[in-house]
Amino acid sequence: MNRFGIMLANLLLAPSLCFGQASAPSQTMPAAVGHGAFPVKVTKTLDSSKLKAGDSIEVETGGSFKLADGTLVPKGSKLEGKVVSSKSRSRGDADSELTLSFDQLRIANGKQLSLKGTVQAVFPPAEEPMGPNMATAGTSAGGSGAGAGSGGVGLTNNGTDRQSSTSTQAVMNVNATGVQGVHDLELEHGVLRSNGKQVKLGSGLRMVVHVDIFG
């Protein structure tokens, strides 16, 4: 092919390349309709020596609360997610880590909410079973009072975790961050770490999960 023919072929090809780039689908995430934090309880032991990335996980809400639209989320509703990463010294890794993410809240009445959630805080198991009036719910405005903050989920309190001030039991607070009252465990940017052979979250362990709700 002569030089003119090569130039003509390039000119004909260039528009099709530009069109292909312009027509690429957008990968943007849907905008969150609210955000907030609420308490959950581990119902089945989560052990980094037995879990791997992609494994499904499930915890349950530790108390009842309401969303901004008035939807009641009863105690025991299921929060589902997956293991993002799992490392364990017992399996030959240099350290022990466990990262969890949550993507769906299944409410007792059958309603399902899509969300993105991460572990915000960890507390030891309660000395007594958590009753329906012993859960604390926060708002997007950063407070734990009733009502919705601007743009938030509007998690409405049904009481507080009424542990005695003289008890060694860590009082659960949805505004807390990090690990509270649990030995040999650290939490940073949603990643749980331990100096032990594995990160092990036993049944009954309480966590605060921060969520962005997409509806």
Would you kindly provide a brief summary of this structure?
This protein is mainly β and 215 residues long.
Care to describe what's here?
About 27% of the residues have low confidence. This protein has 1 helix and 13 strands; from the N terminus they run αβββββββββββββ. The chain is globular, with a radius of gyration of 23 Å. It is mainly beta. It has one domain.
Largest sheet strand order = 1-3-6-7-8-13
Mean pLDDT: 75
What's the order of the H and E elements?
A: HEEEEEEEEEEEEE
How many H/I helical runs?
1
Number of strands: 13
Shape: globular
Beta-strand content: 25-35%
What is the gyration radius calculated from CA atoms?
Answer: 23 Å
Structural class of the secondary structure composition?
mainly beta
Provide the domain count: 1
Question: Which residue ranges are poorly predicted, with pLDDT under 50 across at least 5 consecutive positions?
Answer: 6-26, 129-152, 156-168
Helix coverage percent: under 10%
The CA-CA distance between the termini, in Å, is 59 Å
Main pleated-sheet profile? 6 strands, antiparallel, barrel
Provide the descriptors you would attach to this structure in a database record:
single chain, 215 residues, mainly beta, two-stranded antiparallel ribbon, 1 helix, 9% helix, globular
Task: Describe the SSE topology.
Layout: H1 3-22, E1 34-42, E2 46-47, E3 56-61, E4 65-66, E5 72-73, E6 78-87, E7 96-106, E8 112-123, E9 178-179, E10 186-188, E11 191-194, E12 200-201, E13 206-213
